[in-house]
Structure formats: C-alpha cells, structure tokens
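Just scan my protein:

. . .
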Amino acid sequence: MGSREENTLNNDGQNNDGQNKADGMSMIVVMGVTGSGKSYLINRLAGRQVVAEGGTLDSCTQDCQMVPANIGNSKVMLIDTPGFDDPDRPDADILSDIARVLAAQYSVGFELKGIIYIHRITDVRYAGSSIKTFEIFKRICGEEALKNALLVTSRWNEVDEATGADRERELRERIWAYMLGHGSCMSRFHGDRSSAVTLASQLLIKDPVVLRLQHEMIDEGKNLNDTTAGSFVDDGLEKLREEYLGKIEALENLKGELKESDRAMKRQMQAEWERERAWLRKTEEQQGSLRRDVYEEVRSEMQDKTETKPRGLKRLIPLIPVSLNLLSMFVGIAPGSIELLSEWFSDITSFEG
C-alpha cells in the first residue's frame, strides 16, 4: 500500500491502487440494538449455528465477529456487531471496533456491499437506545451510501399482523423516512433462511459502497472523534462529563458547609464524591479512545514486518488468502466458521496469497 494520499477512495467503492476486489469476496455489516436478532439473522445466512444467539435482551456479541456464508454463488463475509446499548462495553469502544473493521476492509480490498440494520417490530416505542443506535448507524453510512442500507424489521412471529403493520407504517413514515427518501430499502425478516437470503441478496446485487465514516477517516484523515459518527458519540460523552463535574462541584461545596461534628455525613459525601470522580475518569478515558487516527493505526499494523510468526487465520488455515488473513487481525472469526473457511480455501490454485 502507498501513502494515505495514494489510498484515497472512489465513489464506486474502489481504492486508487486497484484494490477493488479481494478474492471475489463481498462483505455485509449487520447492526442493530441488543436483542434485535443480528446473530440470529447471521446464523440463518450461514446455514448453521455459528455465533451465539440471545434469547433475552442481554448481548451475546461483545466484539465484532466475522462469519463466512455462501449466498447463491457469492462468498460473503458477514460482520456481526455489538449493539451500542451494550451495558458491558462503552459506545466509544464499540465504534472504535467497527471503525477498525471498516478501515481494514478498505485496506484489503473487500467489496462492502452494504449494511443491514435490524429493528424489533415488537418494540412499542422507538426510544432511548434504539434512537441512539440508529443515529450512529445513519452517521456511519452518510447520505451518499444510504442506497446500500437495508432497514429490516424482525420478530414478526411475536406480533399480530395488524399491530406489526401499524408499527411498520410509523417507521416508514416517520423514523426511517429520511433514509428511505435517500435510497434505503425496508424489508421484513421472517426468521428462516429463505427470508435471510432474500434480504442479503438485495445488497449483493448492488455496486460496492464507501461509507461516510471511511471517507472521513481515509480521504480526509480525520481522527475518529472528528468524524460525523465519532463526534455524535463524543458529544454524548461531553454532556456526561459536564454532569459529573457539576455533581462533583456540588458535593465539594456541601462538604465545605458541613460542621466538623458531622463526620458520618462527611464520610457519605466523600464516598459519593469518589464515585462521581470514578465515573468522570471513565468518561474521559472513553473520550480519549476516540481521539485517534484509526486508519493510520490499521495501515501501520498491516505494514508491520517485524512479526515473523503466522498471525490471524494463517495459524488455523494455512491456505487462506493474504487479504482475509489481514482482515482477521482486526475482527474475530466466529469459531463455528473455521470449517467453512477451510472448505472455501482447500483449492489454493483459485486464490492469490
């Protein structure tokens, strides 16, 4: 790879050094809130139980995972992503992981066909975490890439048709109206493989796409916090930071007003002060994690020639092509995928690497 300037992106999803295809494989990213059915959809596309599925609203996907699938005549890499409402991982960490995957995907030349966003039709209201996750998703895509975004509703077997249709209409006419007006499509996922393949096929027939987040990181050289998606997350963290600072100041003022004899109250105030300080430190650490040049990090790691041991999937599948091995440095491979990958690359003469 050349310099950042040489590795700029074209509007048709090709980079300027000719890396527009990687061994004939395409990529689809799957996003949505925790419990929306991302992993379930991916397992239907893979035709087997590859990633853990959650029967509750607790997240089973803690990190981005790569899952191979045969869809028609296409070899497709599906990326399962954690929800931004994951209680165990900060939004900044999740966005950083997704950004690294997208930077690596560009660098190795995989064709990104688009993003599937899944929403539960069982949700009575579009609130809280759903709004936040959708806003980040929309900013990752950018207006120019909305034609490669597929908005999917899931869990239709849990609602009656009339109720589901009413909620679907609200999504179409209000929540998702902007994206649908700029080329996005809306579909139902009925829970079986046939329905899953129909969804993925809608993206596979499209030209490859470059997302706004990729343009901003690669063409414009922005740190993650300066991108449209990153600044949205950073703004939320800054509001939290200001809240914690206000609480800390208020506690300090109250402590100063207490009499020397109010020792029990002072201890309680001190404990509260320490809790707020701890939350403030965590928030500032999350903000710091966004202030980084993700693309340069990924490019540098790929160019690193000092490691002589096989890395990524080469340790497991010796015949795997260079492009996929490099990608596996930045996104985990679901354990149940190894068998299919071995089948894909059993004939080394069909691939470079």
